[in-house]
# Entry
Amino acid sequence: MTTSVLFAVNIINSDDPDLLVVLFNTSDSVAHKYGTNSAQIKQAVEEIDDAIGSIKEAYRIKGNLDDTTFIISSDHGMDDVSVNLTSALVNALQSTNIPFENAALDMGPFDSQTKIVYNLASGAAQIYFRKPLTSIEQSTLITALSNITGVANVYDRAQLDQMNTPKNLGDLVVDCDVGYAFSTSAAEHGSYAQRHTILFFSGRGIKSGFSYAPVCRTVDIVPTIYHLNGLISPSTVDGNVLTSILTAQG
Ligand SMILES: [Zn+2]
# Structure
């Protein structure tokens, strides 16, 4: 058993937690390294499946199984990367004649002439306006980035606000089509295309054999947990209670 499962099983045995969160991150790191169809990712997923089985077994031995709700989710999907667009991004930035630097290569102090700083994370590119750009510079920049083959979208700050992204994500985010990324990894998840993920609820308070048809979101997990425990979500919590998955008692 992996360390996180041993910890989880020990907590189940020695305590009576109201909420137990166990993170399995090998599926992420292994897919980044070997890709989503590799023998290695298949093995990683099987190990996670075994680990979930061990946790469920610990609850059964403790006698708490019928009293427990299990939620299995991931924070993103993943797609294999066929084309690394990093050099295409650099070429596009150069074509605008706006002075730029890469934040990862040079954490600063940036050159006094530098107007744009870019950062690459999880396959997407974040662009920061270090100094105000003229409207012509902004439109030249967005056009150059949008014209990169494999770029799906260039989101500006207003669009990013609508998506509830934090301000420090950047002034522009360059989002790639499936198969493309600003990354040398075998697989990535920084784009809108990888927002689809798994979400399973089972156990206490949950209808069995029920498939939820409408779109739900990972932010719906927390309010549903509050509801299952007879609590009201604080106003700072996003998302909705997934009432249609709950039994009458739930
Ligand atoms: Zn990752």
